[in-house]
Amino acid sequence: MADETVSTMIDADRIAVRVRELGAQISRDYEGKRLVLVCVLKGSFVFTADLARAISVHHRVEFLGVRSYGDGTQSSGVVQITQDLMQPIQGEDVLIVEDIVDTGLTIAHLLDLFHTRNPASVKVCALLHKPARTRKVVPIDYLGFTIEDKFVVGYGLDWAERFRNLPFIGLVHQGGGEAT
Ligand code: 5GP
Fold it and tell me: Is residue 151 in contact with ligand 1, taking CB distance under 6 Å?
């Protein structure tokens, strides 16, 4: 536990600028619609909080608990819903807010799940995308940043529940190396 350090990949100012841009774009696209932001827990809670405040059109926020990783850094490929939405989404315009699209398996599963609930539309907003690890190609309608194949933490993203509180996106270094 002792000697990990975190280096900055995307600093807080760059994130803030990009989140404001995404919020403005979403506000234009959803003018007059019944927007529901679905925050995918836990990793998206910081991004959703900032994005919601950058969106000027009326919307409500829902939370969905999903587990796709254990305490390691490799995808299990198994997506488990740990907490469902509190309200139906029938007839509403759903925007899934994800921290990161890695293999694409989580988003693919959520798109299938939500389509069974008859929303007016379902789109995806992801802060980060790692195209190198794609196993399922999914549409990302609003994207913050494309990154290389590195395990990142901060701005809501964890490593064994640590580092979610960092205001930037960073890389963990253990005893001189990176987490893999
Ligand atoms: P996917 O199903 O696309 O492989 O994985 C999506 C989920 O895996 C993300 O919501 C996130 O929880 C986790 N994940 C994928 N890559 C990373 C990463 O680099 N860092 C962290 N902390 N979580 C990741």
Answer: yes
Q: Which tens digit of pLDDT belongs to each residue from 106-160?
A: 999 999 999 999 999 999 999 999 999 899 999 999 999 999 999 999 999 999 9
The CATH-assigned architecture of domain 13-148 is 3-Layer(aba) Sandwich (3.40)
The identity of residue 15, as a single letter, is: I
The residue nearest atom 11 of ligand 1, judged by CA position, is 100
Domain boundaries, the chain: 13-148
φ/ψ of 29, rounded to 5, equals -70, -30
Question: What sign has the CA pseudo-torsion 103, 46, 110, 96?
Answer: negative
Ligand 1 center to 103 CA (angstroms): 8
* CA-closest residue to ligand 1 atom 16: 102
**pTM > 0.90: yes or no:** yes
